[in-house]
Design a protein that fits this description.
The complex is a heterodimer of chains A (about 230) and B (about 800).
Chain A lengths: L7 E11 L4 E12 L4 E5 L6 H8 L7 E6 L2 E2 L5 H11 E4 L11 H11 L4 H14 L15 H13 L5 E5 L7 H16 L3 E5 L3 H4 L4 E6 L2 E7 L2
Parallel strand pairs in A: 3-8, 3-9, 6-7, 7-8
Antiparallel strand pairs in A: 1-2, 1-4, 4-5, 9-10
Chain B lengths: L1 H14 L1 H29 L11 E10 L2 E5 L6 H8 L3 E17 L2 E11 L3 H4 L4 E4 L10 E5 H8 L8 E4 L3 E9 L12 E4 L17 E6 L5 H24 L3 H6 L3 E8 L3 H4 L12 H28 L1 H13 L4 H38 L7 H31 L3 H5 L11 H33 L9 E5 L8 H10 L3 E6 L14 E2 L9 E2 L2 E5 L3 H4 L4 E4 L12 E5 H7 L8 E5 L9 E10 L14 E5 L5 E6 L4 H15 L7 E3 H8 L1 H35 L1 H9 L4 H35 L10 H28 L2 H6 L2
Parallel strand pairs in B: 4-9, 6-8, 16-21, 18-20
Antiparallel strand pairs in B: 1-2, 1-10, 1-11, 3-4, 3-10, 5-8, 6-9, 7-8, 12-22, 12-23, 13-22, 14-15, 17-20, 18-21, 19-20
Helix pairs in contact in B: 1-11, 2-9, 2-11, 2-20, 9-12, 9-14, 9-20, 10-12, 11-12, 14-20, 14-22, 14-23, 20-23, 22-23
The structure holds adenosine-5'-triphosphate and magnesium ion (MG).
């Protein structure tokens, strides 16, 4: 059987942070491969470089050295513009602190990525309603983020992340601000998405949440120390 | 996409109502002020441009130097106009105007005193664009005793505009035929008359004298003629005509005249320059100066800058609150260009709303402004044609400029950093913002100092000892209306109880009566020992009535029959002639006509009067000589009474007895004096209003900034309070940064203001010194304003319940 090329292949990735006194090595010659359709959890102690890795994978940040091949394209040295372009068509983000725009309603927050990718207005309405329905927050479509509970806000954030049908979803501690019941709902949603074919990479501190994934990558001081395959 | 920008912008603005209100209010106030100033400036610049041939019309000015005296005239010799037209083919036409003073015009059984009358040559309507709605422009002013009147005047006297052929009774019931009705002379004209009387009515207009100047003379040059060409021919022309007459009358060639350091020159001023650049002797109406245009334009730009700075400051101050939005948008795929577009849209939107508001405000403020400035500016269909597009343009430009800094600043945020909450927050963060606050306050302090100096100077002018006493003096104008009985009138008035004294002459320090004449120190009429002073005719009561002081000798007296050949000099005339002890010395004056010694009149000096101001206080006192002669221009009455109305009615009764048909006209000397400084006072008032506006706008900005600084530090304040900090300690901590900036502004603005205001004061011959306390006062005022503004916010933040602020996180 022919081995399919991985969606993500990073090799010897390095990231340093320099402040006046110290140089922090956030990522130290890290090499990882992630295949299309995988659900990967990244774990490790605080400060080991999980968020840094996720930001680079999401093309929000660029590495100082090493290679990052995304869908057969080397993106490590892409300009900001090119990265933004690639990002908006392929990647959805879910954050611990939701990061919804306070001035926009639920509907408008979810609609935003479609605007940036230039989807026509009638189409947008249809697609936003579709996801809102799926996330069961349709009845809240005209509310503002402040009027929602944390769990609801995270569902809106996930709706926003998936509305563009991205191939990859990056989630940085998506359940970190939620109680366990709301947290489980979010994990179910992510699992559903994964079953429909979306690749998911999630940073988490919770062994419980990590169990939803296929594979756990454990980081320590910017290096991968262990990989557990879930069964 | 743009819809989304506008929607977000709108919601954002709505959410931050306070910020939005301050931003829009400040900008609207600034724009409204700007709009008013633009209207004012455009009005000033539009003078005489109603003339379709304006670019080809020039006025001939005369430049005269006699010994050490020099005068510039807006008037020229009687035969100049017709000579220019006859001698130079490229002079298409020429016209003379002569102010005719005040005339009584009969309407029914009563008479009305009109003072906007002029004599004019028939060519008037071929040169100036004064459309005639009734009558024939080419012949209207040909015949003597013809008069062309304006539409409004026609309606006033005849209730109709079809009045050609009708008769008006002017001055002593002389009949004048109305030969034309023209549209009213536009307000923006350097002359403004209601009656144009045919020049041929005035016999002097046929005079062929080339040695005196009393006609405002305008030429219309042919197309594509260089005015310099005509100017270049003036010396030869003067030599030919004035030179010949000089030789005949004073036996002096023009070469000898020039050799003695004197000269006669003429030059041309473009019609459209007259209102702003000409302030000569013999203007048809007082003109303005470009100085005010510059000052007001500068203020307009300052105010707009301050408003823009507010906008930028408040927007960037708010940036930390929006950083997360920027981050999220970037993560979701927005690129920098789109973000810049978004922020610019937002700021243009705000400016646009502010512009609309400014326009409405300007509409409401216009009547007030008109009253203040003495103008009749209006916003009508015509002005809207340029106002609307320029307002749109301004809102685009201002919105663009004001929005660009926040736009570039905010859009450059890195999403990774922002979402981590690692943005440098707080007021201290921005050096540029501090710079802008300093800039704003420097301008405000500069304006405060400027206002104080202007105010003090105007106050000084109004209270300065002028060398005469203008209070309690009633002036009855045009006593010549009483003909022979003028003297009787004076006598009778003097007997009324409450009247202290009365003097009959038109030559008063506050009047426009001026007369110049040449006096010589020796009988040979040596040019080098000549004086070219104001030469006034007065009576024996003049010095006493006006409360002037003799520094040497005595005033004229009835008991001295030789006083008819006496002369009184003012100090500067005496100094000029080197006659400080000159009592009983002699001065000579040519009687005109042929030059010979028996044509010379002698005067012996009886006294020297202390200098008194009769010009604008911008100029120093010039030489004046006074001779004893009957002049019935006016009767000035010094009164001392508690019951002025009763006294007035007695004076009116005396007049009525002598002349039942002519109305008495009177004024008060102090009011006349004030009137001559109206322009200055107005400018001062406008300046004060604009300064206050600038300061208000600057404070609005500071208020907003302080509010944000406090808001950003809400959590810090909460924690400090929990730990035991007092309200005053917190308010002080928050105010400190701003106060420091205001101090820096004081240090920057004070010397600049001191220097520039001193320069302005140089224009006044009589001026104040800028006192150190003015600078201190301005600084303290600015500081106080800033402290009050900022501490309002600081205290509000400091007394807030810490539980509230900590809960928010
Ligand atoms: N902007 C920065 N400047 C300096 N050091 C940084 C910066 N961002 C991250 N670091 C450092 O890089 C290292 C990795 O940070 P990172 O945020 O990736 O950790 P993390 O694994 O996500 O931790 P946590 O579980 O607490 O979120 C840390 O030591 C951190 O101090
Ligand atoms: Mg992290």
């Amino acid at each position: 059987m022919m081995q399919e090329a991985p969606m993500i292949k990073i090799t010897n990735l390095e990231k340093f942070y320099r402040t006046e006194e110290v140089e922090t090595i956030a990522l130290n010659k890290l090499s990882i491969e992630i295949a299309t359709g995988e659900f990967v959890a990244i774990m490790g102690p605080s400060g080991c470089g999980k968020s840094t890795l996720l930001n680079i994978l999401g093309m929000l940040d660029d590495p100082d050295a090493g290679s990052y091949i995304f869908n057969d394209i080397e993106v490590a040295h892409f300009t900001e513009r090119k990265r933004a372009d690639l990002r908006k068509h392929n990647i959805g983000f879910v954050f611990q602190s939701f990061n919804l725009i306070d001035e926009l309603t639920v509907f408008e927050n979810v609609e935003l990525p479609l605007i940036y990718t230039g989807v026509a207005s009638a189409d947008r309405v249809k697609r936003v309603e579709e996801v809102l329905d799926k996330m069961q927050i349709m009845h809240r479509r005209n509310h503002y983020p402040q009027q929602l509970s944390g769990g609801q806000q995270q569902r809106v954030a996930i709706a926003r992340a998936v509305v563009n049908k991205p191939k990859l979803i990056l989630a940085d501690e998506p359940t970190g601000n939620l109680d366990s019941s709301n947290g489980n709902d979010v994990m179910e949603l992510l699992t559903d998405l994964n079953e429909q074919g979306t690749t998911i990479i999630m940073v988490t501190h919770s062994e419980h949440d990590a169990r939803y994934s296929h594979r756990i990558i454990r980081l320590l001081d910017g290096q991968s120390v262990m990989e557990n395959i879930m069964v | 996409m743009i819809k989304n920008y506008i929607k977000t912008a709108f919601r954002g603005l709505q959410k931050n109502k306070g910020f939005t209100a301050i931003n829009i209010l400040g900008l609207a106030l600034g724009l409204a002020t700007c709009l008013l100033i633009i209207l004012y400036v455009i009005d000033e610049l539009s003078y005489d441009r109603y003339n379709t041939q304006a670019s080809r019309i020039f006025r001939v000015n005369e430049d005269l130097k006699l010994g050490d005296n020099s005068v510039q005239y807006a008037v020229c010799m009687p035969p100049l106009a017709k000579t220019l037209k006859a001698e130079y083919p490229y002079v298409e036409n020429a016209v003379r105007l002569k102010n005719a003073g005040s005339w009584h015009v009969k309407k029914g059984n009563s008479t009305i005193l009109e003072n906007r009358l002029a004599y004019a040559d028939p060519s008037l309507f071929a040169i100036f664009t004064l459309p005639m709605i009734n009558g024939s422009p080419s012949s209207a002013l040909t015949e003597p005793n013809s008069v062309v009147i304006t539409e409004t005047t026609a309606k006033k006297y005849f209730n109709s505009i079809n009045v050609v052929g009708q008769t008006l009774l002017l001055n002593d019931n002389t009949p004048f035929k109305v030969t034309g009705v023209i549209r009213d002379v536009p307000k923006q004209s350097h002359f403004n008359f209601d009656f144009f009387i045919s020049m041929s009515t005035w016999p002097d207009s046929r005079s062929n004298e080339w040695l005196r100047s009393d006609y405002n003379t305008y030429v219309l040059l042919k197309d594509r003629t260089d005015a310099k060409k005509l100017e270049a021919s003036f010396p030869a022309l003067l030599k030919k005509f004035s030179g010949a007459q000089m030789q005949a009358q004073v036996n002096m060639s023009i070469e000898a005249f020039e050799k003695s350091g004197s000269f006669f020159k003429m030059n041309l001023i473009p019609l459209t320059d007259i209102h702003l650049k000409s302030n000569l002797s013999g203007e048809l109406s007082p003109n303005s100066t470009t100085q005010y245009i510059y000052i007001f334009s500068a203020i307009a730009i300052f105010i707009l800058l301050i408003a823009c700075v507010n906008f930028m400051n408040l927007s960037t101050a708010r940036s930390s609150n929006r950083a997360r939005e920027v981050g999220v948008r970037k993560v979701l795929g927005s690129d920098r260009k789109q973000l810049i577009a978004q922020f610019l849209t937002e700021s243009v939107l705000v400016t646009f709303v502010a512009t609309l508001l400014a326009f409405v405000a300007a509409l409401f403020l216009l009547p007030v402004f008109n009253q203040l400035s003495g103008k009749e500016l209006l916003i009508n269909g015509q002005s809207l044609v340029w106002i609307v597009p320029s307002l749109l343009l301004i809102s685009l430009i201002v919105g663009g400029i004001a929005g660009s800094y926040p736009a570039f600043y905010l859009s450059a945020f890195q999403p990774v950093e922002v979402l981590k909450g690692k943005l440098a927050t707080g007021f201290k963060g921005s050096g540029l913002r501090s710079f802008l606050v300093v800039f704003q306050f420097s301008i405000s302090i500069f304006l405060i100092i400027g206002t104080l100096v202007i105010y003090n100077q105007l106050n000084y002018i109004q209270t300065k000892n002028l060398g005469y006493n203008r209070n309690q003096v009633l002036i009855v104008q045009n006593v010549f209306e009483l003909n022979r009985q003028a003297k009787t009138f004076k006598q009778e008035v003097k007997e009324i109880p409450g009247v202290i004294n009365a003097t009959m002459t038109g030559f008063l320090p506050t009047s426009n009566w001026k007369n110049t004449s040449i006096y010589y120190k020796d009988a040979t009429l040596d040019q080098k020992k000549s004086l070219f002073p104001q030469s006034w005719e007065i009576d024996e009561d003049y010095i006493k009535t006006l409360d002037m002081k003799m520094v040497l000798g005595r005033s004229f007296s009835k008991d001295m029959p030789t006083d008819s050949n006496g002369i009184i000099l003012n100090e500067s005339a005496a100094k000029f002639l080197g006659l400080n002890d000159g009592i009983n010395k002699t001065l000579y004056r040519s009687q005109g006509g042929k030059h010979s010694l028996d044509n010379v009149k002698q005067y012996h000096i009886v006294g020297i009067v202390k200098d008194f101001n009769f010009n604008s206080l911008r100029e120093s006192v010039s030489p004046v000589v006074m001779t004893l002669a009957e002049n019935t221009g006016a009767l000035s009455i010094r009164v001392d009474t508690k019951n002025l109305p009763a006294l007035l009615s007695q004076i009116k009764d005396r007049w009525k007895e002598l002349s039942p048909n002519v109305q008495v006209n009177y004024s008060f000397m102090d009011q006349e004096f004030d009137a001559s400084y109206r322009m200055e006072r107005r400018t001062g008032q406008i300046f004060i209003v604009f300064t206050s506006l600038a300061i208000i706008i600057a404070c609005l900005g500071l208020f907003g900034l302080a509010a944000y600084a406090a808001e950003q530090r809400t959590k810090e304040i909460g924690i400090r309070k929990v730990l035991g900090a007092s309200v005053s300690a917190i308010a002080g901590m928050l105010s400190k940064d701003f106060i420091k900036l205001v101090f820096i502004s004081i240090v920057i603005a004070s010397p600049i203001a001191w220097y520039l205001m001193n320069k302005w004061l140089q224009e006044f011959a009589y001026r104040i010194n800028i006192q150190w306390w003015v600078l201190v006062l301005a600084g303290v005022a600015a500081l106080l304003i800033a402290v009050v503004t900022v501490s309002f916010q600081s205290i509000k933040a400091a007394i807030a319940n810490p539980v509230e602020s900590l809960k928010n996180e």
